[in-house]
Amino acid sequence: MSIRTATPDDLDAIMALERASFPTDAWSDAMMREELAAPHNHYVVDELAGRVIGYAGLRALPGSRDADVQTIAIAEASRGHGRGRALLHALLDEATTRRVREVFLEVRADNPVAQKLYASEGFTELGRRPRYYQPDDVDAVVMRLDLEAWSAARVPDVADAGACT
Length: 165
Known about the structure:
Strand content: 25-35%
CATH architecture: 3-Layer(aba) Sandwich
CATH topology: Aminopeptidase
Distance between the termini: 13 Å
């Protein structure tokens, strides 16, 4: 498995995962194409045997001290093997490179697995946005990470070394 920077050629594979992972509120092809092309965004894909099994995106405006995790998705068959954590690390490493201090995200209140992952990396809950995810009427849990503290506390992970090219 390897994590690399996403390209426009990855759009079809990303959208297949997007629709499978978020069936009721998947982004459109046009929205994802814009996300991939935006200069202030950083998207990565995780490949296994030449097939995209996951993707993730970060938004960090130039000069900003904060960034947002836009999305992370892993193919169902590849879940539970640390690939979501590896993608998150790739985003946080990029945020560190961009000199970001805080990273924010929203996660579905009905997704305890993702919430547990984020909490295990040091994200803390700031609050909730009622009925944020439509059409499902599911609240968003808003979370924040002190990136400097995360970087200082992080033990280098051999699996992450050189993972994103």
